[in-house]
């Protein structure tokens, strides 16, 4: 099964995509995670992407399409894939359709997570992540068991993403509306889109998404 998660920053795409990928035993592909790892490792890709990411702008289509082109050929993608944070522009969406078509595959479902800006800002300003295993927490809504430490026993302290300041969050929301919002109409026109309210607990949102998947299978 091939699923795309759409939605504004902080709507819970990463949280839900991870749960669903584990449930369906398919690959989770997050361009944000791939880019952040490249930034951490100071690779040529990371050095190119860092400035855009820190200011809340999109990394160029060429770069992210190149990442996806390689990633979908990995062995763990054989059973299916969940795209989280990709595509973000119509050009990326066209490229994804073409890359999948070349492999004889197609998108089965696009889940659009909908959430108000105020809740987004609350969630993102209190998000903390583990740099070692990528686990995502929230100081208010999903705190780690021990302050500042990952529940998975990683030795590195939890950190706040550079783009989770209020100033950069506003820019990310502006960029989302300008560049990514048109994807909702794009996928609706292809009869692939289902919108889910991302308000409510992580478990409640996941239950709604599972219902959707059930009705698609
Ligand atoms: P990316 O990492 O994709 O960021 P994003 O889309 O802004 O999304 P986030 O990761 O901020 O949020 P999310 O929706 O995954 O929410 P999460 O589950 O973490 O991209 C970062 C940057 O990389 C971009 O700005 C761009 O520069 C670049 N980039 C990436 N992909 C690109 C592309 N395709 N093209 C061009 N550039 C690209 O949840 C947020 C918080 O809320 C967490 O603390 C979580 O614990 C909590 N939470 C989640 N769900 C709930 C719930 N139901 N109730 C309570 N708390 C919740």
Overall 3D geometry? globular
Order of helices and strands: EHEHHHEHEHEEHHEH
Number of strands: 7
Q: Structurally, how many domains make up the residues?
A: 1
Here the CATH topology equals: Rossmann fold
Could you say which small molecules are bound to this protein?
BIS(adenosine)-5'-pentaphosphate
Largest sheet: 5 strands, parallel
Q: In CATH, what is the homologous superfamily?
A: P-loop containing nucleotide triphosphate hydrolases
Q: What portion of residues belong to β-strands?
A: 5-15%
Structural class: alpha/beta
Poorly predicted runs of 5 or more residues: none
Q: List the strand order in the largest sheet.
A: 2-3-1-4-7
Query: In angstroms, what is the radius of gyration?
Result: 17 Å
Helix content: 40-55%
How would you characterize the overall build of this protein?
It is a single chain. By secondary structure, this protein is α/β, with parallel strands linked by helices. It has one domain (2-115, 179-216): P-loop containing nucleotide triphosphate hydrolases (Rossmann fold, 3-Layer(aba) Sandwich), CATH 3.40.50. Helices cover 48% and strands 14% of the residues. It contains 9 helices and 7 strands, in the order βαβαααβαβαββααβα. It has helices spanning 13-24, 31-40, 44-55, 61-71, 90-102, 117-125, 166-180, 182-188, 202-216, and strands spanning 2-6, 27-30, 81-84, 109-114, 127-129, 136-138, 193-197. The strands form 2 sheets. The chain has a 5-stranded parallel beta sheet, with helices on both faces. It is globular and about 45 Å long. The protein starts with a strand and ends with a helix. The model has no long low-confidence stretch (mean pLDDT 95). Residues 7, 9-15, 31-32, 35, 52-53, 56-59, 64, 85-86, 88, 92, 123-124, 127, 136-138, 141-142, 163, 172, 200-202, 205 line the site of BIS(adenosine)-5'-pentaphosphate.
């Amino acid at each position: 099964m091939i699923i795309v998660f759409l939605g504004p920053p902080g709507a819970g795409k990463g949280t839900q995509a991870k749960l669903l990928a584990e449930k369906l035993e398919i690959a989770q592909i997050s361009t944000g995670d791939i880019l952040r790892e490249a930034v951490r490792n100071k690779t040529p890709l990371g050095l190119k992407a860092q400035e855009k990411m820190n200011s809340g702008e999109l990394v160029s289509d060429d770069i992210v399409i190149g990442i996806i082109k390689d990633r979908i050929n990995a062995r763990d993608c054989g059973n299916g894939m969940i795209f989280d944070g990709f595509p973000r522009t119509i050009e990326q969406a066209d490229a994804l359709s073409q890359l999948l078509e070349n492999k004889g595959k197609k998108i089965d479902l696009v889940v659009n997570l909908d959430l108000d800006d105020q809740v987004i800002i609350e969630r993102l300003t209190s998000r903390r992540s583990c740099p070692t295993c990528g686990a995502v927490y929230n100081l208010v809504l999903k705190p780690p068991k021990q302050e500042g430490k990952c529940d998975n026993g990683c030795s590195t302290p939890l950190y706040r993403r550079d783009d989770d300041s209020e100033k950069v969050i506003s820019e990310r929301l502006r960029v989302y509306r300008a560049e990514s919002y048109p994807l909702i109409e794009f996928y609706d026109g292809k009869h692939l889109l289902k919108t889910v309210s991302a308000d409510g607990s992580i478990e409640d949102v996941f239950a709604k998404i599972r219902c959707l998947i059930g009705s698609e299978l």
